[in-house]
């Protein structure tokens, strides 16, 4: 993966449990040396959520250079729809509804430098951190509570380091993620070209029914754009994932991306008997159109 972003230095050993009550929302999760650790060795989300874990594809390596060449003809497209196992979660006293988990884990993934940290900071604090002083070490998280259809939904957003040397750390967290926001940078073609490899990795490590959305970030940099919106749309369609373009700098669609994810997770968790099925694709299309976004 290219390393065009902020520095992501090495860190001490030991990963505390991200759900530990002792951790604060800004606590760093230091890197642990996990040469052989795969999601198999962690408490699988499937145990908590009553789903079968996805079967790892032994033919697919974890390193970028082991990923197979793209060949849509013999590849099964990744489909992320379906009923998620959040339905099977134990009731939470902290939640405002008995079937909603206390927090929903949303993970930001994508190449280093695409703007994952900035997107999170924009969403959480409404600010843009220009320059390169933000550093993501392995994995970091922040909490934010959204009100979705009158229900409070607590998102725990994990910000990952896109660099190869932190890969074993991020692999270990995929299994517990309810949703993934996969980012590329519209001004960086390589970050777009790597999306397929990220999808392969997600397919290998994340829950089968994880909610996934593709985001083309930095659309404010119109003069530097090298990836057309249509290309992002086409790729997203190919893999059956919702797509939107965002800007952590201007704030375009940032709230929308997280709200859409929260809505989908909330609807999966606590669908009322006569409530129409929430369709994430339709919602995103409608809202993006409504925002007047991204015609290039
Ligand atoms: N113009 C522009 N720059 C951005 C945007 N998001 C992030 N950046 C810049 O891109 C660089 C990498 O951002 P960062 O969030 O650290 O990327 P990460 O490695 O994916 O976490 C920083 O210099 C940011 O200021 C955006 O939406 N627009
Ligand atoms: Mg970062």
Write down how many β-strands occur, each being a DSSP E stretch of 2 or more residues. Answer: 7
- Helical fraction equals 25-40%
Strand content: 15-25%
Structural class: alpha/beta
* Radius of gyration from CA coordinates: 18 Å
Mean pLDDT: 72
Unreliable runs = 1-96
N-to-C CA distance: 27 Å
Tell me about the largest β-sheet.
7 strands, mixed
Please, how many helices? 8
What does this molecule look like?
The chain has 296 residues and is α/β, with parallel strands linked by helices. It is 26% helix and 16% strand. The protein contains eight helices and seven strands. It has helices at residues 45-49, 116-125, 167-174, 189-193, 195-205, 229-239, 254-269, 280-290, and strands at 28-29, 104-110, 139-148, 151-160, 179-185, 211-217, 243-245. It has a seven-stranded mixed beta sheet, with helices on both faces. Strand 3 and strand 4 (151-160) form a beta hairpin. Helix 7 (254-269) packs antiparallel against helix 8 (280-290). The longest helix is centred in the C-terminal third of the chain and has 16 residues, at 254-269. It is globular and about 45 Å long. The chain binds guanosine-5'-diphosphate (GDP) and magnesium ion (MG). Magnesium ion binds next to helix 2.
